[in-house]
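Q: How would the structure tokens look for this protein?
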Amino acid sequence: MDTPATPVPIHVCIVTTAHPIDDVRVNNKIAHAFRSAGFRVTWVGPGNAFFDKETYNRDGIVFIFAPPVKNRLTRLISRSHVRKLAAAVPNVDVYYSPDPDSAPISAALAKKNHAKSIFDIHEIYHGALLERWLFGRRVEFIREFVRKRIAKTCMQCDLVMGVSDAVLDPVFHDMSRRMVVRSCAPSWFADGPAADVCGEGRQGLKMMHGKGYMSYGTAMVLDAMEIVRKEAPGPKVVVMCSGDPDQDPTAQEVKAYAASKGIVESVILHKGVPLQAMPDLLRSCDVGLISYGRNLGVDILPNRIFEYLALGIPIIAPDYAVEIARIVGPEQCGLLVDFESPRAIADAVKKLQEDPALCREMGRRGREGFLARHNLEVEVAPLLDRIRSWYPEKAEVRC
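A: Here is the predicted structure in token form.
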């Protein structure tokens, strides 16, 4: 009598040419969700990390490393390494790629191996992000070329997912093969107490700004802090750094600009921390800022907004940020202002500093919204169901 074959779980292969192994969305959110669903997960990509080189693999993912990416040229070269390594991974059911140069690799391997492919789009790559690659130049024919190439890749994939409709609309219109999966924080982010917003004994607001980029809103925030310091006492802003603040060139630029404004004591430069350490850091804050100008800010929906919601921190964000407004407005969890106007930012800071009760109430409403509607587990469920529908015979098998 033949022995029944041992059932195997769905096998997802993450194929990336650029994302670091401790990336918040790809590792801590999407890959974690795959593992929590019982999928087997293999990660193929460069061995780079933002800062977590020790505990990035808590979920039993199999990591296969290509040479680290050191600059833009080595990123382009890494494609061949990643392609060869991914092609050698056996018995893959789903290839998932989070960048436009690895997605064609996934699509080709899926077609060859009778598997499925998913392209996860994080950015509007033919927009302001492209200008960073072109050192600020606006070259329209390159912009359209990039958009068309990404659109072509989308057509080759079985599912195109993205952080918002804004990133998907320019490149893919087939609603049957596209899905929005916002980069919500995991529900564990709200474990433990909420932030002590405007707690007893605090002098002025402590505001989380996030990573500092002078051309992406930090300068406007510092200009606003100069105004506030002249009109109201005590506010401080936390600016996160890529590494040690004393070694980070951007941090030094922020520090120099703050010195020119006479507000060095109002700026807290903080070394970057892994996602698991962010809740404790945010619990010391009273307000969360989203500070992009219009060049990037219209279509953004960053991770940080969901982290603010989870910790019960009121938000000040751009009034032109369409996706953010769809959260902040209905949840009544913050203020929307023009982040290209230091005066408008300063007025919002003063409003919240002068009304602690409003601060706390906005934070409470945001936290309730996170727990009910804006956490990763709720957000990612349709994606997991779609993958299970491709392989119903494996859907109930867990690693």
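The mean pLDDT is 91.

The domain at 11-184+376-390 is CATH 3.40.50.2000 (Rossmann fold).

Upvote if useful.
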